[in-house]
Amino acid sequence: MIKIPTRVLLVDDEKDFVEMLGLRLEEVGENVTPAHSGQECLQVLEKKEIDVVILDILMPGMDGIATLKEIKRRFPLVEVIMLTGHGTTESAVKGLKLGAYDYLLKPAHFGELTVKLESARKRKDEQAERIRKAEVKLLLRKSGDI
Amino acid sequence: METIRLLLVDDEDHFRQTIAKRLAKRGLASEQAASGNECLSILDKKAMDVVVLDVKMPGMTGIEVLRNITAKYPETEVILLTGQATASDGVEGIKSGAFDYLTKPIELDHLFNKILQAYEKIRRSDAEQKEAEYRKQMEQQMIVTERLASLGTLAAGVAHEINNPLAIIRESAGWMRQLFDKDELKDMPRRKEFVKALDKVEKSVERASRITHQLLGFFGKSESALSQVNLAELAGEAIHLIAHEAQNRDIRIVRQMEPLPDTIWSDAYQIRQVLLNLLTNAVHALNSEGTITIAIEDVGDSQTITVSDTGPGIPRENLDKIFEPFFSTKSPGQGTGLGLFVSRGIVEKLGGTLEVASKIGQGARFSIRLPKHLNGTDEFHESRGKKWVEKIKSRFAE
């Protein structure tokens, strides 16, 4: 079976981290776009179709939580997995309440990350599918009205 | 009236005995000595509170005896008895450390009151000394607490900073592993050695992140979930987690939990962590063969859990250190030296205490005492160190 690549946006201010994790994800067949700040993340989302954002919570400037709020407001279908430090599980909980799909403690296990990535992507696809069906229904009803 | 240990010293037997009798009538028993030498040999064997001492005696004079007493028994108070003509001896005596002097012929009332005053002084200085000791102890605790508090801030900061490069190391090593697994590198020269080195890198990252996580778990923000907690259940869960390892090492685990304790109001997750830590330590202490006893007791407004082992025990010089951060007797990589430190922190955060008792050759016994009700969640969320320091500072301000 051919794997359909998940379009991942990887956001962390640590460039080396983004580069390395990016290489690894690409290697297992994902499609990775790097970003190094909250702003950059939102700019990418405007231009590019993304399935899942992997988002670091502790970033200078616009932090992960603020970025998450913006993502959910402007791109509600995009799923977000947060990366948190151990002592900041509180922000992870906050993030989940704001609509993030899940979170991982840093440094995260690659295996865990890819599993979560797949299920986040699945949820996004299912949601997109539901929307599509609803749209079709709407369309059919409208055309029936005519 | 408390018993005052009183010694009368006078070479005139009749005078001394009369005084002793009359004091006894007022409820003051005394011992007697007929000379300075006798007085000192009594003091040698038995501590006295007050010595009533005649200045003019054959052999060793009262003043000489007094100097001996003040030098050797600083806690004993001396009242001098002087003759009319030798009142200057009294002044000399006070300079040498006597409590006071009375001039013969003495009035019994006077003497009686003086003895009580002298005793009162002893009691006061006793109390002052205890107070000073207490204060010193508090100060020391405060220093330790402040040190730990600042260490905590530093440790949490360092742990955060180290986590980032650790994540990079982990991903880089992981990437290399993925590369080595590729077909194109299958026949790379010395590939095995590279992979072996990579194993070590990954293992060490694991080890380092265990330390940073433990530090952050303790020093990071406290997130507690309070609920009804059954200590016996938690103990059972913790035992279950180590049961396999214990069995492999021929270690018997005994539970003493009858009658089953009521639930208490606390943090189940954190208590389980502490219990697991103590049990793991006990298993490591025993190494192989032996017994671990875990007992729960209901004591008024709190419950205690004790974890005892029949291992080699903890040397005296280590008893104070085992709760310090980074103190470990395990070989490098085996223990972080944070287990007991973090455990005590957790228990204290939950309003309880974690104590140890151990003797070489007689095993070790760790007791956790936890209150049944935890008051005030605000106070609870405040960091332990800060709370302590505030408490002690306010005590000093009083």
Number of DSSP strand runs of chain A: 5
Class from helix and strand fractions of chain A: alpha/beta
User: What's the CATH class of chain A, please?
Assistant: Alpha Beta
Classify the helix fraction of chain B into a percent range. 40-55%
What sort of overall outline of chain A do the alpha carbons produce when their principal axes are compared?
globular
> What's the order of the H and E elements of chain B?
EHEHEHEHEHHEHEEHEEHHEEHH
Pattern of helices and strands of chain A: EHEHEHEHEH
Strand arrangement, major sheet of chain B = 2-1-3-4-5
What is the name of the CATH class of the largest domain in chain B? Answer: Alpha Beta
Helix run count of chain B = 12
Shape of chain B: elongated
Spatial separation of the terminal alpha carbons of chain B: 31 Å
The CATH superfamily of the largest domain in chain B is Histidine kinase-like ATPase, C-terminal domain
Rounded mean pLDDT score of chain B: 83
Q: Fill in the CATH topology of chain A.
A: Rossmann fold
How would you summarize what this structure contains?
The complex is a heterodimer of chains A (146) and B (398). Chain A is an alpha/beta fold and 146 residues long.
Any overview of this molecule?
The complex is a heterodimer of chains A (146) and B (398). Chain A has helices spanning 15-27, 38-47, 64-74, 89-97, 110-145, and strands at 7-11, 31-35, 52-56, 79-84, 102-105. Chain A is of the alpha/beta class and 146 residues long. In chain A, strands 2-1-3-4-5 form a five-stranded parallel β-sheet, sandwiched between helices. In chain A, helix 1 links the parallel strand 1 and strand 2 (31-35). In chain A, helix 2 (38-47) runs parallel beside helix 3 (64-74). In chain A, 37% of the residues are buried. The mean pLDDT of chain A is 90. By secondary structure, chain B is an alpha/beta fold. Chain B has three domains: 6-106, Rossmann fold (3-Layer(aba) Sandwich); 141-219, Helix Hairpins, CATH 1.10.287; 227-382, Histidine kinase-like ATPase, C-terminal domain (Heat Shock Protein 90, 2-Layer Sandwich), CATH 3.30.565.10. In chain B, 54% of the residues lie in helices and 17% in strands. In chain B, the strands form three sheets. Chain B has a five-stranded parallel β-sheet with strand order 2-1-3-4-5, sandwiched between helices. In chain B, strands 7-9-10-12-11 form a five-stranded mixed β-sheet. In chain B, strands 6-8 form a two-stranded antiparallel ribbon.
